[in-house]
Amino acid sequence: MTIRTRLTTFCLTLTIFLTLWPAHAVFAENVRIATYNVENWRERFQAFKLEKRAATQPNWPQEFLDLIAREKREDEKDNWETQLVFQDPKMNADIVVIQEGPIKADLEYFNKAFLGEMYETIHVFATNTDRGQHTAILLKPGFEVIEIREAYHNEPDKDDVNPISDKLFARGPAFVRVKTPAGHEFWIGTNHLKSKSGNSVEATKWHNAEAVRINQIIKELASTTGLADVYFTGDCNDELGNQEFELEAGGSAMDILGKDLTVVTRKIADEGAISYHGMRRARHRSFIDHIVATESAARRVTKAYVVDVPMARVSSDHFPVVAELKFE
Predict the structure, then answer these.
(1) CA-CA distances (angstroms) from residue 318 to 171, 195, 216?
(2) What residues pair up with 191 in beta bridges, in sequence order?
């Protein structure tokens, strides 16, 4: 067979292959997702905001400019610590959901100035927060946002469990339908559940009511959107099993949230890992940052772990929690 004949045969074979190959074909792929509560992150952009104001308002007193410079050094040190956590090989997640995050402009500044635009898509969710502690999602290039559902925070408090508002959620969950670079799709959501600060039976009932509704939302997404793979990740402010007031308030929030679902983080929590180290407050050390998944989504998880690298110990009082997914 001559070289020309071989080349003609190869081209014909390739043409037939590409013609028959389905346009919607997807390929094997590994994806890493992470949930990270960066403690009071909103407070680390004060100098950034003041510098922008000073640029538009000349003749500021020198002592104010010196104050901004000192604040900038402190902010940059704090954000550098968080930068190193994001870039650590153990973290380096394709998708990160954030709790206690800043506003979008601050996140975009952090992504550009500290991460070198590591993430292409940044979205800050609508919530009921009154502390400036926002939930958000960051996605690397190649990951496409197909749909965002973030109106759950508007749902009414039908059972009158919230003493300060007519809304059910203290902040509120949100979910994003994501398409990966290889064409796989799944839902990923987050929330910062009600804090246990000033805990009581009444507060625990409110916390549990949030967990009931999030469990329902996960199942609704899996059953009504044609996409069964759903991951919920976030600061759940609750350990596995029953703690104080929970028996009186209807049970453990994590048992309620994970009912008929897979708590991906259960194994590492049972092994003694912690996600909340409380810095010097040793009595608060526990596992409260969880990943929950529907059955089909859970089958894709190959590994779950806590990013407890040294810099994560000073960046926040929470460690990032990561799940690695494998799509065949």
Answers:
(1) 18, 14, 27
(2) 234
185-192 sheet: strands from edge to edge: 144-149, 174-179, 185-192, 230-235, 289-293, 262-263
> Fold for domain 25-327?
Deoxyribonuclease I; Chain A (3.60.10)
Q: Would you say residue 110 has pLDDT above 90?
A: yes
Among 93-102, 201-210, 243-252, 312-321, the least confident range:
243-252
Q: Give me 72's structure tokens.
A: 């900038």
Instruction: Say if residue 194 is exposed, middle or buried (CB neighbours under 10 Å; 0-12, 13-18, 19+).
Output: buried
Single-letter code of the amino acid located at 82: T
Domains of the chain, residue spans: 25-327
| DSSP 8-state code for residue 191 | E
Nearest CA-CA partner of 278 in 233, 249, 239: 239
The pLDDT score that the predictor gives to residue 101 is 96
pLDDT at 5: 63
Separation between Cα atoms, residue 328 and residue 322, nearest integer Å: 20
Burial 6-30 (b: 16+ CB within 10 A, else e): eeeeeeeeeeeeeeeeeeeeeeeee
Query: Each residue of 152-163: b (16+ CB within 10 Å) or e?
Result: bbeeebeeebbe
Q: ∠ CA(223), CA(224), CA(229), 5° rounding?
A: 50
Structure tokens at 322: 């990561």
Question: How would you label 275-293 residue by residue, b for 16+ Cβ within 10 Å and e otherwise?
Answer: bbbeeeeeeeebbbbbbbb
Residue 197 structure tokens: 């600060």
The SS3 assignment for 77 reads: helix
More confident residue, 92 or 7: 92
* Residue among 312, 273, 263, 261 nearest 84 (CA): 312
Span 249-280, pLDDT tens digits: 888 999 999 999 999 999 999 999 999 998 66
